[in-house]
């Protein structure tokens, strides 16, 4: 009976290791995606790029609730929130620049 307990313990360790490995793998790809979103948020603002910013914000905010439950790393969730704030600011800034351009042309 003790042998079965050892096998079960070993299986649980393997499962936890696999989950941790999967989490770290997802984290690497997610951080690359977040880096891309950050670049979208900080690059030169123009009305033509507004839809890219909005699409990125929409996609990221749409998956965030699921992501929070899947990813065990609080750092990743904090980074997602930070990038979403950056995309929101980029959207506001783009609208403000557009408004200023319209006022100049009047």
Automatic annotation (TrEMBL):
The keyword Protein transport applies. SUPFAM superfamilies: Cullin repeat-like (SSF74788). The keyword Transport applies. Residues 19-105 form the Exocyst complex subunit Exo70 C-terminal domain. Pfam families: Exo70_C. Residues 1-21 form the signal peptide. Keywords: Exocytosis, Protein transport, Signal, Transport. Component of the exocyst complex. Belongs to the EXO70 family. This is Exocyst subunit Exo70 family protein.
């Amino acid at each position: 009976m003790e042998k079965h307990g050892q096998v079960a313990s070993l299986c649980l360790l393997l499962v936890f290791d696999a989950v941790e490995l999967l989490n770290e793998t997802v984290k690497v790809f997610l951080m690359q995606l977040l880096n891309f979103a950050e670049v979208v948020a900080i690059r030169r603002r123009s009305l033509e790029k507004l839809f890219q910013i909005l699409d990125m914000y929409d996609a990221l905010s749409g998956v965030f609730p699921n992501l929070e439950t899947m990813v065990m790393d609080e750092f990743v969730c904090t980074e997602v929130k930070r990038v979403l704030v950056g995309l929101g600011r980029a959207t506001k800034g783009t609208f403000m620049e557009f408004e200023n351009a319209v006022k100049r042309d009047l």
